[in-house]
């Protein structure tokens, strides 16, 4: 398991949630969209780490 990759994903998710919340408070649609995009990026990073873990398990 690559903790660095997981940490980056968690960090990106928190960043995205914060940005989306700020956009919701201010009504800024760009911040809302950017925050949601960062959350999607976090999900992609987690999926990539899952694939890496599964490949590593197969090879071991």
The total strand number stands at: 0
Overall pLDDT score: 94
Strand content: under 5%
Number of helical stretches of at least 4 residues? 2
Element-level helix/strand string: HH
Pick out the low-confidence regions: none
What does it look like?
There is one protein chain. By secondary structure, the chain is mainly alpha-helical. 92% of the residues lie in helices and 0% in strands. It has two helices and no strands. The longest helix is centred in the C-terminal third of the chain and has 31 residues, at 29-59. It starts with a helix and ends with a helix. 8% of the residues are buried.
Fold topology:
Elements: H1 3-26, H2 29-59
Summary tags:
mainly alpha, elongated
Q: Concise description?
A:
With about 60 residues, the protein is an all-alpha fold. It is built from 2 helices and no strands.
